[in-house]
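Please, structure for the following, as tokens.
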Amino acid sequence: MGDLLHRSKIDLNQHQLAQLWRYHNLIRLRNQDRELTRIIGFEPMVIKHYIDSMIVGDLVKLPSPIVDIGTGAGFPGIPLKIRYPHLKVILAEPRPKRIVFLREVLAELHLNDVEVFEHKVVSRSFTVPVKGVITRALEPIEKTLLRTSGALVTGGHLYFMKGPAVEPEIKNALRRRGDSFRLVCDQSYTLPHTDHQRRLLVFEKIADLPS
């Protein structure tokens, strides 16, 4: 695992590698009954889950606290927390089986300043002030802008980890919510040593949404 990470210019210390390895083994152990991921090969898991999550920190500086909406098995929040221990992370996940898994991970990896929000995030359910929101291929951008409007502070940022064909989502979000959000980063990249194309979009909240 360390070689794959190093090849992607992600260098973790021994403690961080041990945490990531324990996390990987927990996913493998619980995957069948908790429905955590369809990707089960070792190298694809490292590249598409761990590296794909951690590499965001090379592209932008992430704020703290940050909420990971629709985190599922903990992507990208847990790999980011392992790589950047200073981050305060809120893992938002409504599905009971995955909530149980996330709590097991936090206990086993001894991760501090990480919370699990056990509900669906909507503007009235999630109102804890945060500076950042991150999602990975969860839903159309505009829906995330709406559902986080009760928590994201003005000047806060939303980080969208998307595939390359996201232009219609961008246009729709700016057309409908351009008075409250602006696109401040649009970066295309490829996962190292693969042909997997990604696109990182960052929207900044410039005003509250109209009532």
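Residues 73 and 100 are 10 Å apart (CA to CA). Helices lie at 2-7, 14-34, 42-54, 56-59, 77-83, 96-109, 141-147, 167-177.
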